[in-house]
Amino acid sequence: MAKTSIKPAVHGSLGFAGRVVQSMLDEAGIVINGSNPWDIQIKDPALFKQILTKGSLALGEGYVDKKWEVEQVDELICRMLRSSLAKKTGFFSHQINRLKAIFFNLQQKSRAFQVGEEHYDLGNDIYEVMLDPRMVYTCGYWNDAKDLASAQENKLELVCRKLNLQPGMRVLDIGCGWGSFAQYAIEKYDVEVVGVTVSKEQAALAKKRCAGLSAEIRLQDYRDITEKFDAVVSLGMFEHVGHKNYRTYMQVLNHSLKPGSLALLHTIGKNHSTPGVDPWISRYIFPNGEIPSLLQISKAMEPDLMVEDLHNIGPDYDKTLMSWFRNFEAGWEQLQNNYSERFYRMWTYYLRVCAGAFRARDLQLWQLVISRGDNSTYRRPFY
What we know:
With 383 residues, the chain is an alpha/beta fold. It has helices at residues 8-12, 15-25, 47-54, 56-64, 73-82, 85-88, 92-103, 114-120, 124-130, 148-162, 180-189, 200-209, 246-256, 279-284, 294-301, 315-335, 341-359; strands at 41-42, 68-69, 170-174, 192-197, 215-219, 229-235, 257-270, 306-312, 363-371. The chain folds into two domains: 8-89, no CATH class; 109-371, Rossmann fold (3-Layer(aba) Sandwich), CATH 3.40.50.
């Protein structure tokens, strides 16, 4: 990537901390107070010192507090992550987060419902505005899809085909959200679904949306599941499990599968196995979250489970997140009486930062089809 030149007058007016930050941004082609849509516009020069000590935490908090602006947050983040900047910086707040993840089980059972209360229970009105009509809060599959609704239908269909669902099967949905998969699988494949979630708001709306269908929605932690099923699906829940519990999760998966049956794990993934998560995302969006690596997932599966198929649709999450962002922006007028402008800035920053991370291929989205090693007929469906 070519570096963007910096005018001496602009560079000299930044102060020492600002010049240090600019020298770091040079590698990403980002100019402080520059004219490109991804160039950061500084409103409070005190932010420079905060960025140097607190990294992405200060960057996110500064945006919410209007200390800086940018036209395209997603492209700014994409350019930062594609450059060597991300690999060279080791901010204090990031190190603290990693140490906490190493020494403490932040996703222990006593904390299981925290993410439900702080994120998924924010208000169903937000998600009804932001998501597609089925309310799917995971990556869509944009193969030949023209809009978000069809991309999510594609994804649900892909999942059902990969699991080879048949009429009468009893399916477990770990992290069932607002019941989108349960509705689709029951209507299209005539199965029964047991869905579990740690969100009271999700459970209440899922029960309402699945009324009259062969679905049972439970407010339950995955570690309390004891029955066996003909298939297991988990869409966008594994990001809340934490590396200290990956092995426990896989044991639950193993014990929940009947002989010859399949599970599908749909999860965001990262390219390295370092514990911890971005400190701003952890503090303000997903408490106790942690993104797994392939190494961590495969190690947790040993020796009971095996991967039948691995599919990376990570680039599709960029499109999904930007669709959510546009829907949220378009629906803000009907939400603003219930939520503050500060929340608006926090939420739009979250959606666009994540889109930028997927665009840069810093994050992945994996679908793993998993068996206990006793399924000898599996073939990935062409879809």
